[in-house]
Design a protein that fits this description.
With 125 residues, the chain is of the alpha+beta class. The protein has one domain (24-120). It has 3 helices and 6 strands; from the N terminus they run H-H-H-E-E-E-E-E-E. The strands form 2 sheets. Strands 1-5-6 form a 3-stranded antiparallel beta sheet.
Length: 125
């Protein structure tokens, strides 16, 4: 009996770890983010960073407030858009900036596990 309980502990710990991770999801239908991104889903999922890595999907991308600070871009991460994330400004590494034009017309940030995967300035770079 003790062996069975001890054998089950790692599985329970793993289950708890996955249960506490926030799951990404597309913007809720009818939300401001959904209305902004509607019609651009194909473009969003086809993007890569400058190193050729996929940005991810509409589940990770959101329209964001963005600014240039000194010589780099920063994007505003808000918990309303990225559940489980703290409200903060993140620095965008240069290799994460999409150089092609942005048909959406507003800055987009692809955020995965708290890190920028890609960023598209509002009018390209």
């Amino acid at each position: 009996m003790t062996r069975i309980i001890l054998a089950a502990i790692p599985a329970l710990l793993l289950l708890c770890a996955f249960a506490s991770v926030a799951r990404a999801a597309p913007p809720p239908v009818g939300s401001d983010d959904w209305n902004i991104m509607k019609g651009y889903e194909k473009w969003v999922i086809e993007q890569h960073d400058t190193l050729g890595r996929w940005c991810c999907s509409t589940e990770d991308a959101r329209p964001v407030e963005a600014r240039i600070n000194d010589d780099h871009w920063e994007a505003h991460v808000r918990p309303e858009q990225f559940p489980g994330e703290a409200d903060r400004w993140v620095i965008i590494p240069p290799e994460k900036i999409i150089k092609a034009g942005n048909p959406v017309g507003v800055a987009l940030l692809w955020l995965y596990q708290g890190r920028p995967q890609c960023f598209s300035p509002p009018d390209g770079v």
